[in-house]
Amino acid sequence: MFDLLAQTGLNALYAASYISLVAVGLVLIFGVMGVVNFAHGELFMAGAYVVVALYAGGGAPFLLAVAAGLGFVGLLGLLMEFALFRPLRDNPLGGLVASIGFLMILQATAVMGFGVRMEHIPPVTQEVIAFSEKVRLPMSRLYVIVAAVVLLGALWYFLKRTRFGWALRASAQDAEAAALQGISIGQTARIAMFIGAGLAGVAGALTAPLVSVNPHMGHSVIVTAFIVIIVGGVGSLEGAVVASVAYAFVHTLVTTFWDGVIADIVGLSLMLVVLIVKPTGLFGTADRA
Amino acid sequence: MPRTVLLVILWAAVAAVLVALPHALSFSQQEILVFMTINLLVVASYRLLTLTGEWSLGHVVIVGVGAYASALYTKELGIPVPVSMLLGACTSALIAMGLSYPLFRMKGFYFLIGSFAAGEIIRLLWKRFREPFGGPKGIKGIDPMPDFSIGIWDFDFFEPVSYYYFAGAVVALCLWLLWRIERSPVGLTFHAVHWQDKLAQSAGVNVRAYRTLAFVVASGFAGLAGALGAHYIGTINPNGFDVETMVFVLTWTIVGGTATFYGPLMGCIALTVLNEIVLREMGFEQMRPLIYGAVLILSILFLPKGLESLVQKLVKPRRVEP
Amino acid sequence: MNPFLEIDRLTMRFGGLTAVDGLSFTVEHGAIHGLIGPNGAGKTTTFNAISGFYRPSGGEVRLRGEVISGLSMHEVARRGVIRTFQHSTLFAEMTVLENALMGTHMAFRPNVFAAIVGWDREDRRGAYARAVEALEFFGLEGLRGERAGDLAHGHQRALGMAIAYAAHPDVVLLDEPFTGMNPEETTRMMELMRKLRDSGVTILIVEHDMHAIMGLCDRITCMSFGKLLAEGGPAEIRSHPDVIEAYLGGARHVS
Ligand SMILES: Nc1ncnc2c1ncn2[C@@H]1O[C@H](COP(=O)(O)OP(=O)(O)OP(=O)(O)O)[C@@H](O)[C@H]1O
Ligand SMILES: [Mg+2]
Q: Is ipTM over 0.95?
């Protein structure tokens, strides 16, 4: 029993690390741009395909492929900002719809480029840390956890300690006021989109060898991310991280003891309860609806 | 009087075209026509819901509730098909009534996400419970509409043309009902709740009750659409009512525009023709979602008020007088 | 006999800020009662608490002895208390006539089934007649086809009142009805309000135009920083030292 719980905990930790990367990106984009980016799951998928192309297909080192995933998907984010969200700045529903269009384009591109079948990527490492007979953490999962901690730490430093980070947080609070302080809305929007999308991309890239990569993998990711940002509070980055961890534990636990569909139902029900009881989320204060 | 005469002639002409239409189409196009007819009811009911200003992501699941309910009523209880369809519609309305209690504590973005969660939970229940919902594979061998004949006309409802006439008549009736509702004081109150719920309340409008009313009525019609579809296709499964399908409904509605009754209908027709007929004929099988996505983006960028705004420019809207 | 409209130790707190602080006053039936005070005194907040927009943090509002505070806005409205809003709050996308029709909601309650079957002809006709009457009362009948959002400011204020009037209120709460009106319009509107009062409607009015308030009101309540400052007839209030002090020095900010 203890073994099972410990193993579940490790699995949850792994899930929490990539979920929080995705969710934090989504919150950042929502905070600064004011749009719900429905294509966020497909940005994750795009990151995974960069690894498929460069690492599995091109033989590039894994880390390089991951970095390329971050950069490439970050650029996709810039493209979205430029082509969709900037022209639709006064039309939040329009931004949402446009992101749905972008999602379809990304999906179709993946289907055309790689086919609908699942991609099998050679594992980065076969090593496993065995805490006991039954409690084991594959090295490749540990890499994801470490990378998530490092990236989120870097983001935290950037947001709290640098001028741009300060500008970003200010414009997430109040874009007009931030603009009056001499911070260009366009610049903060571009930074937020690059980082937000890049985080989704890097999450997809990191997990690519561990999951089945396919053009429709973004769907479950975006659903999870929505649950997490609602539970954590729509405007709150810290909330997103905490909620990711909490959600990952609950979901993994329920999956282990019942099954995955029940776990999904439990997750969605949790979100519904939070929406009913405290729509601003457990950690959120700002009401941006 | 001449205006009335003109209108009668116009509508008669429209009806004649609609009756003749399937005979000008290939078999697969006839099937698409049936689905499109049913989808017209889905988008029209969706518009009724959006009249009060709330956008739901659970509407397709409500369509599915009608489909599952009607299929199960015939299968498990042996209720004859046309009756089960109506019961399916009622079931959707009832479920919507139940959902309205938690959901209408939310507004705007939260309602959007909340409706998604509620719908997804229902869908996952279908997927999880083999009894009675059939699990991931869904329900197969759903009873079709029984054949019948009026005088010289025989209707075999496996034939798309026959089913098109049946579904077309039902949908036309429903659209007429929806239109009556929208043009009534009730519809005006829906608009009022949308534009200024505070002012509406201060005039004595129970805003929550009106939101619920719109949601329940829209869901009833959506459920009927689901039942119409289920008894034609003969099989349903949870994936048929997932969020991707919802995205299509959302897209039809937005590309068409929601300011008018006909906007979402235009969106549904235009995009269905584009997606199913033009792109298919041109052989862009894999590229269809890509082009579809691009059309979505282009229309929201360059035609933010929808296709209806093109029509509105041509015809000055007339205002309601009793 | 109970007083008509009674505000009893009404308190409204927002976090740390107490916007209305134990305010009490009564409004006589058939009176035009003014509520004045410097900017930020808590007048709109008082209106919001009376009309059910806010649930008061403390105290009660009673109408004919019945407690109405804590009810939701439409329930308060159904008891005959109709309010207008400080900023031109209208159904901007709808026509002037449709706006007025919304005011008739309570008298001619719409019904889906009747509407579909066509059994609501009588009601529709009645609502239409009432709406037109309200527009005529406020001199807006010529504009009935216009989009409400396109109206001039003064007309928008008048339309806000027409909606309230169409609802057959017992009490109307008017929040700064004269802003955006030129002197002639204001004078005409004052005349209309007297007519409204004479038809049996009690009026509680917030207004910064002192000329209008003094000329119109039977009784005036002056508040400052959420508290009652003075109460009396126009002459008393005009010469009340505390009131003069509040308006000259005590205001937090001047408009
Ligand atoms: N929803 C709210 N949340 C927090 N504070 C509020 C809220 N509404 C009003 N206040 C505060 O309460 C105080 C009273 O505001 P109120 O609008 O009632 O003043 P007022 O007398 O109507 O002023 P004016 O003449 O400018 O309209 C102000 O300090 C205002 O900032
Ligand atoms: Mg005020």
A: no
